[in-house]
């Protein structure tokens, strides 16, 4: 069994680490979503020129 002070400190540190981990996972997800979106945009620009939301230059 832990002493009350020990458990309080351990919970505090692990919670901090968990938040940081979640934050990094979220940022990675956001980056991945951005990549997927960019790829979709390029695909749209390739198949339907002038139809994409953002102006993207595509090498032909």
Q: What report would you give on this structure?
A:
The chain has 60 residues and is an all-alpha fold. It has one domain (1-60). It contains 1 helix and no strands. It has one helix spanning 4-47. Mean pLDDT is 68; it is low at 1-11.
What's this model, at a glance?
The chain is mostly helical and 60 residues long. It is built from one helix and no strands.
Task: Throw out a few tags for this protein.
60 residues; mainly alpha; 1 helix; rod-shaped; disordered N terminus
Number of β-strand runs:
0
The biggest sheet amounts to: none
Secondary structure class reads mainly alpha
**Rg computed from alpha carbons, rounded to a whole number of angstroms:** 22 Å
Order of helices and strands: H
Helix share, percent: over 70%
Strand content of the residues, in percent? under 5%
Q: How far is the first residue's CA from the last residue's CA?
A: 68 Å
Shape call: rod-shaped
Q: Kindly report the average pLDDT value.
A: 68
Q: Number of domains in the coordinates?
A: 1
